[in-house]
């Protein structure tokens, strides 16, 4: 089986590529990534010479490039697409919403269109007209549901109510997937995850930002009163969930993925201070960001009961492993945070497919 993974140099994407190649020995992966500030070859340096891994630099909204890959002209038959390519930082979406629309909405439509056309043609050629030979999974977020009150959980039936430009574009992409399923019977699936953490996460995000600041003896910025609540999911658990949904999920369905680790930002902060031997003088309260949702919490019972997935990491164990990973990988951290340092780990050009 050959899969197209978009955004595979990013945090979740690179962990997913690593998971798929290590777990499925007969699978190959094509990684399409624009290599923005959040995508780095360092994230997959160990696969630079792996023949089952191919990389193409490009944007998912580039229709001709996507068509070249999904049609099979570039690398041969594609059996599935897992879309993780997205602009995902809420603060950036507030300052520049346009790029979020271009990547998250238009890019998703380009991928769906290519998968629909070529998946239908391939199915017809193989003797089952009316079906599709390419499966599609959209990796989304619990932020599309909006903000919860002090009680309750997001289920797959919770109405979409996004509150930021980022979450609005992700909700739009989800609705496109729903439309392709209901209009064309196209086999699209959607996962919606809670906040991820773990190795290879860019240090603009809360947990790696706090870890790296504390390594340097710097204060950590806590929005508002620090009582915003999130459910935290280890990226390895998320990758297992994506794998499970892609192979076992029912077309047209949505599957929520959560870590059962509901914490306030202040609880997260104090835990990291404790683990790194710092006191509360390292906390710096800053003005709350615009449209900051108060609470997210995921009900993952559907994926657990129907598909048999469960999270394996407790937050306390996961955060210790994550702190240790950042401590033990200073070269990676330097490479992704200093301008012009992206080439610290050399990737052989022969492995990188040229854009035609």
Q: Secondary-structure element sequence?
A: EHEEHEHHEHEEHEEHEEHEHHHE
- Measured as a percent range, the helix fraction is 25-40%
What is the beta-strand fraction?
Answer: 15-25%
Low-confidence stretches: 340-356
Characterize the biggest β-sheet. 8 strands, parallel
The beta-strand count equals 13
The overall average pLDDT, rounded, is 91
- Order of neighbouring strands in the sheet with most strands: 10-6-5-4-1-2-3-13
**Rg from C-alpha positions?**
20 Å
Assembly state: single chain
* General shape: globular
Number of alpha- plus pi-helical segments:
11
The structural class is alpha/beta
- The rounded distance between the terminal residues' Cα atoms is 24 Å
How would you characterize this protein structure?
The chain has 356 residues and is α/β, with parallel strands linked by helices. 39% of the residues lie in helices and 17% in strands. The protein is built from eleven helices and 13 strands. Strands 10-6-5-4-1-2-3-13 form an eight-stranded parallel β-sheet, sandwiched between helices. A three-stranded mixed β-sheet has the order 7-9-11. A two-stranded parallel sheet has the order 8-12. The two termini are 24 Å apart. Mean pLDDT is 91; it is low at 340-356.
